[in-house]
């Protein structure tokens, strides 16, 4: 019941309204709204669709594409269940079945859940954080097209009758060149590799948005829990997806050019693949689960009409879960014959990760208990999540016990467990969030009656489908088998599971009907129809492309509930946001804030629509697709296209800082950067360095993992490395870093000549460094196919060369603009981050070069 | 004047807050990776076949590593708790703009406490298992 006694419906949803004061919903007055809309709207038309990069457009596209993949993956699941409906069925053959479970698992894990959650983030975060846009809209645009094209490339395998069939985890040696020759696994590795790049790109953007682009006053302790969840997830994505990219690279090198990383006959290790894959694979499921918990934390308070109980404990739980998710991976390998103590580390972590999950569950239950629940569809899915995920979590603790896992590994018990946690823990919250946020996405409410039908069919169907799998697993039914013998007692459970699967499908069908009906004829949503507390609901509907005309100033965790107005603050801050609302109106302005206190630090121009990210994505997909078919000329073409795209994307669109902007700076003591934010550029370089550091660490892990398998090293009695060429490389790298440092210092003193000479010297020194690596490789008496040592030698040194080449490419681009006189003491961010890159290159070279050239002498 | 001196003494540096916040997860991660790689490497390479204080050498060093990591995270927990207590006394922390020190200190104390517990429990099997028994 609402506070005035009338029944609750979507238009009278009780809200924690203010005792007095202005309404919290912003309705920008004309013509400011028109002017801002003209500035922020995406371009129209056919080409405009490709150039569009507004966060709401991109977020919607990503979600729509991801959901389409969900439907395709779901159909595959139905086909598998039809085959398993009865014993010794002949609906599908074994090969087709293998393809189906591979495509189903890969689609759900790579093409549905993570993109779906990232789509939510890209749409919601600017609104939720009270800013205008994500920091790198073009990166989001690139992310979408690489995801879309990567998914299409993956499914193109059907056209070539080369469908991957080695499972979503592609264990070697099955996935290696001997037992999976031909194209299928190349489609898996390269098609999904593109999608992985997309996920990492989105992760970078999300981190910077949450840490440095929050509304003034939104300190760390006032951030919505969903923002915490996405921050932790985005950091985890950088670590986990980079691991998968490196693992995929190593396997593809084995398949395509004959390296021997995973071939034990010549010194490699098949278990290395499992380690690398699961270092990605286990955090991956938490990358899916953590944002889903963010949805729950956003929805529960609104529908029980009170703030979340245990905010701080939930933040603690999220951080703990994110960190510990990287300490579990070997629990997928308990049956591979590892030392007891090694397994004990992971068994302890696997059991204790239930603690932070439990903290969150109890916090939500307590909030519901002490609130006044309103059982609308989003809340029904929340309850479905709690019930289902807890069951899945309990079975997870069971399989964390090593001897128990030995009994149920590779059985249907595990299938039951992970579907309980992934559908229960992720898909239920996704549906809850879809019902909750649909008014924001489409300005229409989804039909409540159809929503309830959807929920009950989905909930009942899920438990009917998956609970019996616990039993069939205990009875010994293995995973990934296309049929089973009659009379083993498995028939009835499989039959029930198949019925359940179709009930789920019916529920999803009702959702689709609801969605397509409601976007045309659904009830028009009023602003903040649920009476929510967080900023994403603070604008009028449909939500303007620019978010807030006048940026909100936040004082509490629940601004729409507890603040009389979103525009009260100390006088200087208030004056700044008021003036920013009116100005500048000839470029898209957003603000950056400090990480802790969320004090404004910069006004900067956000990049506008462009075709170049699409060109870059096309270049990337061309490279990957051509490599599947080993069309190296086309790979080169793709590389050139990608480089052209990158050049166009980053081509400086320099504008002069006007006197008016300088006056704004002086008046409000906040820097104005019409040519992009130095701080954001610096952060992006630090994150790029982090990605390279993760990659370096993984290469080193691979090297020493294989090294320790053998008493003698170099393996196969190959000669020890020559130290002359790495010494020259070292001097070259130091010279390049020194040249960049000098150039950076000189431009700070407005010395254009010093800048140019420093950049040139850095380039020459870096070129010598790369040349020395190449020369060393050319005169070796072995090659990358000789054995695992040779493969590691070549791969690590070439990776080091690629890092240096990246620095040279950036240097070259910077030189062009330096010689054109485009840098000044005030604006030279490209030089600054170039120097940063080369300082990091020193560390990378020491690590990689030391491992390859020095460690054989020492270890 | 005395009040100003007292207030300055109670002010908590952002560095101390960040250390308190991140030390638990970082030290746990380092401990975990180091311990696991040490165990796997010594067993794979068949090293350290002797006993120290009645324990297998590998067990002994794992226990030392465990206790060392636990001491560090425990100390960071104490530091974070101290920060939190100071924030309760510090008037300035109650200003909305400075609300983050109590939050960071509280979260840091709990994170360090949890990870201290996890570190200690991870080290327990070292007392009981035959370390390099391959299953």
In which order are the strands of the major sheet of chain B placed?
1-2
Beta-strand segment tally of chain A: 3
Order of helices and strands of chain A: HHHHHHHHHHHHHHHHHHEEHHHEHHHHH
Q: Report the C-alpha radius of gyration of chain A, rounded.
A: 28 Å
CA-CA gap between termini of chain A: 73 Å
Summarize the largest interface: chains and residue counts.
A-B, 40 and 43 residues
State mean pLDDT of chain B (0 to 100 scale). Answer: 83
Low-confidence parts of chain B: 1-9
The global form of chain A is: globular
Q: What is the highest CATH level, the class of the domain at 701-858 in chain A?
A: Mainly Alpha
Strand content of chain B: under 5%
Distance between the termini of chain B: 69 Å
Count of distinct strands of chain B: 2
Largest sheet of chain A: 3 strands, mixed
The biggest sheet of chain B, with number of strands, parallel, antiparallel or mixed sense and barrel status, is: 2 strands, antiparallel
SSE sequence of chain B, one letter per element: HHEEHHH
Structural class of chain B: mainly alpha
Output mean pLDDT of chain A: 92
Q: Residue share in helices of chain A?
A: 55-70%
Secondary-structure topology with pairs:
The complex is a heterodimer of chains A (859) and B (135).
Chain A: H1 32-40, H2 45-51, H3 55-83, H4 94-129, H5 137-155, H6 184-212, H7 225-257, H8 270-304, H9 311-324, H10 340-352, H11 354-370, H12 377-399, H13 402-408, H14 412-442, H15 448-474, H16 491-521, H17 559-562, H18 571-582, E1 589-593, E2 600-605, H19 612-628, H20 632-650, H21 659-668, E3 671-673, H22 678-707, H23 724-748, H24 752-778, H25 788-819, H26 829-858
Parallel strand pairs in A: 2-3
Antiparallel strand pairs in A: 1-2
Helix pairs in contact in A: 3-4, 3-5, 3-16, 4-6, 4-8, 4-14, 5-6, 5-19, 6-7, 6-19, 6-22, 7-8, 7-9, 7-22, 8-11, 8-14, 9-11, 12-14, 12-15, 14-15, 15-16, 19-20, 22-25, 22-26, 23-24, 23-26, 24-25, 25-26
Chain B: H1 2-10, H2 14-44, E1 51-52, E2 55-56, H3 57-89, H4 100-123, H5 125-128
Antiparallel strand pairs in B: 1-2
